[in-house]
Structures are given as structure tokens and as C-alpha cells.
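Hi V.,

You were right to ask for the full record rather than a summary. Here it is.
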Amino acid sequence: MLALVPLPFGSARTEWQWFWIVYCSLCAVLGVFLFRKQNSNALPQGLLACLISYAVFVLWCFLQAINWLQSGAISVNPEQSIKVASLFMAHGLFFWTCYTFVRQQPEQATKLLNAFVLIASLYCFYGFLSFALDGKHVLWYEKTAYKTSLTATFVNANNFATYSGMGLVAATGLILTWGRKYMSGDIDPAQRKKKLIHALIHGGWVYAVGIILCATALILTGSRAGITAAVIGALTTLSLWTIAQHQSGTGLMKWIFVFASVLVGLLWFSGGTLNERLEKPVLEDPRFATYPPLVEAIKQKPLTGHGAGTFEQVFRTVRTENIRLIFDRAHNDYMELAVTTGLPATVVLLLTLFWLAKSLLAGGKKDSATALRYTAFGICTQVALHAALDFPLQIPAISFSLVFLLAISLGSSKASKQ
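Predicted structure:
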């Protein structure tokens, strides 16, 4: 699934979203039969509470589409709300499937992270080749937007910036996991450095290539917010890992210097598109003109919302004359949630996601799952920041990947603790 979900334009189209809804449902049913006979401790109370609150949120999205008060449905487009509610449900089922699998087999968590980095790197490599050789097509379709940006199999360069950034942060976490045995212990620093270089030459270079591929693709998207969020996510992972290893501030600065050197080198090589974007005034971006109408839409139905997935219809009624572009999604996932599902439901969902992300910081600081948990936290930080200026969480290729990384990180952490 992780390998295929980014392929059909990030699975942003309705037909592919229904496909993954059915697929995740079948995987969850299969998971029940596979794991029902295996001994397993009860779910941690905090996680169980999160799953229940998420289920309540999904139920509310379904209720918006049903005439359960006999006075008409809350949603202005019930069919669309049912689809979006089903997609939310599919994410919950996918989380449970991945979490349960890794909880039963925690040794598979790092292998799964390796698989994700490999998949993301391959998409970045394809995007780089496509951009260098042609640059005018997304798969076999001619581009209608972002003609000077790398988008790989995505339509929107900002969305692919989020995806390639997730690959970059995950690759950073992997190289930390791989290098852990060479950077710890009481061996002489010079001997440790020699051992690390030898290991890098004989296999470790694969992780470095993953970082370079993802970082190059990220820069070529030209997404200012996407690149900034990814850098913050990677630095968050580096900082947490360095602190956990009880390294000094000098150790952290060394990592930041190495990371910054790689970025500067890649910017020099492939930063033309980004430089053009940076020359444009940030506050003149058309997306900022949509925020006042969104606030007005929230005020109209602050408690119930207008119906999950109905942003496009609702925005037509509140848009002002100075907004000339077509917006089918809000360039702020949090505001769109408030418009469509209502403020109470938005708070429930965000608190649930906040607790899951916060749980990544719990547990031992030197167990086998530490780097994995900190990698997932860095990616959560990255996506959360970018979601304030764009709509990455509405692209299944991104949202399912995020759910996957959360699930395997929490699953391996809980398993190692128990």
C-alpha cells in the first residue's frame, strides 16, 4: 500500500480514495483473524481513549450526512460527507492494523521504516528524472500548474514537498539508528570515527543516498513552507536523539553543521526554483485572502460545521470579489476542519492527534525504538507545521504514510516497554 498510494497522483482523486477505503477495511478484517489467537496485553489506556475519541469523531462525520433529526442533514453535500467520513474510518483501521502487527512483531519496525524510506527515495528519484528529462508531465498527463517545479507523481508541488520531506526526516532517523552502535560506547573517538567511515563505505552510503535524493527533490519543488517544515522536522529529530544520547551541545552542533552543509550544497546545485519563489513577497500569496471568508464560514455553523468534505461548496458562498482563483481546498487544514466538521469535532480530533504525537516522547531514551519514535515525532512536527499553510493531510499518500509511521513507532515502543 505504501508503495502504491503515491502513484495515482497521490491518490487525491475520489475513485482512488474509495479503493483505499475498501482495501483498509479488508486489511482490518484480515488482521482480526490473523491476530485473534495470539496472546496480547490489553491496549494502553491512553491509546484506547484516543481510539475511542477518534471513533466518536468519525461517527460525527457520518451523522452530519444523515437526516437523524428529521429536519434535514447537517451536511450541504451528504454524499461527499459519507465519502470523507469513510476515508477517516479507513485511516483509523489502517492505524490499528499497522499498530497490531508491529506490537506482535516489534523487530519488524525498523525494517518497515527502511521500506518507507526506500519507497520515498524511489519516488524522489523518479521525480528528479522526470523533471530533468521532461518536466512538463505528471505521469502521462501534461501539467496544468507548477510547470517549473518538481512534482513527481503528485499534481501539487507543495504536497510533494511534504511527502519528500517525510522521506528526508525518515532517512535522517534511519541513519541515526544505523550509526547508533558506532557513536556510543567507550571506544576512542578517533577509532570510533574510523569505524564509522568504514561502515559508511561498506553499506551505510545507502542511507546517505536516501537523504540526498529526498533533499534534492524537496528543494526542486520550490515550496517555501514545505522546505522550512521539513528542515524543522529533521532538526527536531536530530535534537531529540542527541539529547537522548546525553551528548553535549557540541555534539548537537556537529549534527546541525553536517545537515546544514548538505542542504547548502544541494541548494547551490538545485535551488533555482526555490530562489524564484523566495523573491516573491510572502504576504501577497493568494491563500491569505481566503482566511477572512473562512472565519466567516466558521461563524455561520461553529458547533455543527457544514459537513465533512464540503469546503468547496461552502467557500463559494463566502468568497469575496478580490479572490479570483478557484480554491477547492483551504490552504489551512485546521481551518477547513473547523468549517466542515465544527469546532468541537475539530478540537476532539486535534487533541487525539496531539496525544498520539506526545506519546512518542514517552518511554526509554536508549531503547531500540528511541530513534524510530523521535523520527515519527519529527515527521509529525513537519506535517503539522505545513498543514497550517497548505492541505497535506488531505492527500492520502501523505496522510496514510503519517498514520503508518505513527502506528509502527507507537507499536514498537509499547512492545519494547512491555
